[in-house]
Amino acid sequence: MADFNWKDYSLETQAIRAGHNRTHEDEHSMPIFATSSYVFKSAEEAALRFTGKQAGNIYSRFTNPTVDAFQKRLALMEKGERCLAFSSGMAAIMAVGMGLLKSGDHVVSSRSVFGNTVLLFQNYFAKFGVEADFVKLTEPSEWEAAIKPNTRFLFLETPSNPLIEIADIQLIADIAHKHGCLLVVDNVFCTPVLQKPLELGADIIVHSATKYIDGQGRCVGGAVIASDEIIENNIYPYLRTGGATMSPFNAWVFLSGLETLAVRMKAHCDSAFELAKWLELQPAIAKMHYPGLKSHAQHKLAKQQQSHYGGVVSFELKGGKEAAWKLIDATKMLSITANLGDVKSTITHPSTTTHGRLPPEVRAEVGIKDSLVRISVGLENGDDIKKDLLNGL
Ligand SMILES: *Cc1c(COP(=O)(O)O)cnc(C)c1O
Description:
- It is a single chain.
- The chain has two domains: 6-259, Type I PLP-dependent aspartate aminotransferase-like (Major domain) (Aspartate Aminotransferase, domain 2), CATH 3.40.640; 262-390, Aspartate Aminotransferase, domain 1, CATH 3.90.1150.
- The protein has a seven-stranded mixed β-sheet, with helices on both faces. Strands 8-9-12-11-10 form a five-stranded mixed β-sheet.
- By secondary structure, it is of the alpha/beta class.
- It contains 15 helices and twelve strands.
- Helix 1 packs antiparallel against helix 3 (65-77), helix 1 (11-17) runs antiparallel to helix 10 (248-259) and helix 4 packs across helix 9 (228-242).
- Strand 5 (182-186), helix 8 (191-194) and strand 6 form a beta-alpha-beta unit.
- The chain binds pyridoxal-5'-phosphate.
- Pyridoxal-5'-phosphate is lined by residues 88-90, 114, 157, 161, 186, 188, 208, 210-211, 220, 222.
């Protein structure tokens, strides 16, 4: 099988079988390589490895076979050349900044990105002379107008959290490239099962494996996927030096998470779509935010860009914060937690939790109202989820 290549297989198959190089023990399941370092056959071999003249493991801060299996598998699923794993999603985003930016550079980011991503740009990269401007995710003209001669990359998340707005990745990638910038896409909400940003023209994908990739809320981890060139020149040297490494145990958990990702995503999406259609009919609801509904402003774009509409549903209640808290507190089964992408459904009040650190005027600008509730729809029976919500609706 000289021409065997996992690239010729579909995502569902790659997710289950790619990445694992069976060892001399003939194991069927990927082992956890719990080792910090590796042994060389001679002083000469050690020297060759350290200078990069011979491929092979040196130290688990930068290479480990279990972590490598996860990286190879996720790279294939995202149709990227290479993937590097990190200790968290934020560590992956940090690595993109540290690897690509220098003092005097500029970044354009969507205003509707994960809260800590905004803080990373505003409080940390700013300290080292990197400027960031924030624009409306769904307004391509704002993106283009914000680009300066020193803009290095554009950064977005689609669908956004918690309002589930959709950005046209291809359009914004074209704008970035026209001005000599890169496009970085946070693909946490869709995963490669629903959306492949690199195929749409993005240059770099970042992941928090903590969410759907794990899928059962156990481990924290992240990843960067990009071309060989970007990984080799910008991201790998930073990982090796900066040291925000994924542990082999977490990589092992995420590998098995990837094996069921396609079936889980389909079930999450089907159940979320069903719940959104039901919620839209409830008299207590003032406004729905779910791209599968025809009432969603970017319904057509979502249909064209994604293979399904996602597992997160947000909605505004009539009656402000009081009604939102009442609904949340009346649930008996749903978990009141900010995490998402879990088999367990979770319910969140964004304006006082995940987005509570934003100044009120910024929240208003982004459109996160006190009446907004977000549900990450899990894999419990859909009727049980509805029944739980009826307690407070
Ligand atoms: C959770 C999350 C992150 C950060 O990931 P961690 O693993 O928590 O560090 C980044 N982006 C999005 C969209 C997320 O949901």
